[in-house]
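Reopening this ticket.

The earlier resolution said the output was attached, but the attachment link was broken on my side. Pasting everything inline this time so it's all in one place.
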Amino acid sequence: MSYNDVVLLLGSNINNPGKNIEIALEKIENNIGLILIKSDLILTKPVEFDSINNFCNIAIKLKTHFSPIRLLSELKNIEIEMGRLKDSSYFDTYQDRIIDIDIILYNNIKFISKGLIVPHHKNLYEREFAKEIIRFVK
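Inline output:
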């Protein structure tokens, strides 16, 4: 079985964000693959929407045998298990969230489908906080 190197970015800004990240990381390791590298956990202000709740963010690199679409499905399942029933695309705007898990890189491929675009352009090139922590795990 072949394995894929993947970079994920996790964020949470409600209901004990640090603990939410910890739970999500445990679920990722138990259900998706081995975490190889973790960035430091950082606190950031919300981007592209207003909220009084700051985010906890972390970037990780992991190995998984899942395809990009299967990986997305598994990550969405984790978000749902943790209480995030609808993502930002449903609301057509960003909102506070218990957990958000984005696929940033998947091997060195470009992948485009209806629900997934890799690499994740905004987090790789536009959002300073994301660029800062992703560079530690690439």
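Reporter confirms the inline version is readable. The two ends are 23 Å apart (CA to CA). The chain has five helices and seven strands.
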